[in-house]
Amino acid sequence: MLSPENLLYAAIGVTVGTFVGVLPGIGPALTIALLLPITFSLDSPTGAFIMFAGIYYGAMYGGSTTSILLNTPGESSSVASAIEGYQMARRGRAKAALATAAIGSFVAATISTIGLTLFAKPLAGLAVQFKAQDYFALAVLAMMSVTALVGRSLVRGVLSLTLGLFIGLVGLDGLTGQARFTFGSMELFEGVSIVIVIVGLFAVGESLHVAARLKRLPETVAPLGASGEKWMTREDWRRSWMPWLRGTAVGFPFGALPAGGADIPTFLSYTFEKHRSKHKAEFGKGAIEGVAGPEAANNAAFSGVLIPLLTLGIPTSATAAVMLASFQGFNIQPGPQLFEKSGPIVWALIASLYIGNLMLLVLNLPLIKMWVQVLKIPRPSLYAGILVFATIGVYAVSGSVVQVLIAYGVGALGFVMRRFDFPIAPVILGVILGPMMELQFRRTLLVSNGDLTVFFTRPLTAVLLGLAVFALILPYLPRLIARLRGRTAQRLAFGEDD
Length: 498
Fold this sequence. Notes:
By secondary structure, the protein is mostly helical. The protein has 21 helices and two strands. A two-stranded antiparallel sheet has the order 1-2. The mean pLDDT is 79. Pfam families: TctA (PF01970). It comes from Actinorhabdospora filicis. This is Tripartite tricarboxylate transporter TctA.
């Protein structure tokens, strides 16, 4: 990792990541998707993975700048930080908000990377015991969890997942070689590349979405404050260090779950800090704990996300799905065998997280004025450039105008999905995990001579499928509990037996 070449890749990754994190609407998934075609031409995949990890981390750091100064979260995981951060900026405390976000992110990311270093290989050792039916159940759990918990509507989530599964089935059958959904086109025999789907959904779809609402985007940037003002006072440090640790404790395990990601832990951290704080009156008006906790949870979740990605080959967020596609582009399959077959690459990637974190701390605090200038880039020019870059990238990978048209067709679908509030992540998971899930399902049936009970007689498989069902029910549980409590209260009011 300390070789000049890999240090350069890490520096490029964290710089580009911070840049795109600062720009509203451009997240790490879109950036990595745009860079995928370029990195496939590199001699070694290690540099590409190091750069992608830097982009992911950097975007989370940069997202706090947009949330605090513009009240426009670039990522959904930055929404909780924007609640208090923007209010602090309006009160002239932007520097303190940015500092607690940056230092908290550094602390959380470092602690969670230590956790990744300690737990990743033992978990990969356990995953070696998985059989085909276990992988099928795990894929079902991952898709059901993300589908149920990411979007606001379960129906919309399932429809998005169905679209992803359909796209994943296009091409030749992995077991029989039969053409499926190719409509007689030779171009579709190899299926629809995940790179094309990702570039279409994120680059084209996001550009169209932003173009449709340009006039409604905020343009006023909150002032940084006086140049001689302290970044953080002693009181700020005292109020921030425990939220940093608590946010880390919440974010890391949540990131490692099949329904992982950073959205849920950031809001949990914010809610917890609000309830236990001695300064409850400040919440909603600029409480520093409301920035420190969620930002720590946000960055800790990333290291957690890498655990199922590296050990099981299961992505738990849209960006993790794009990173999985980058591994597959280099013919490397994340999973139980990854640490044995590609150990040097994996450990270099994990080592890069420590160095990348230090680079980000150096980048974020001294250069904050430069990142504020990035917010002033005209949106039309920015997104026009993204579309050009996306088109060139797709053509460079495929060499086919048809594939470029498919990418734009997928982008049009992405625009419609954003317009009507359909989640994007289930589509990506369906495309990536769908073929693997189908293959493992059919292999299990071949070994068991078509006996479906094999999915329920093996304890691990049954538990994973049970968790998948629970994930679908989970969003409705608060409503059901509230309804049951209401009925109980009504019976007690009328003196009936409970």
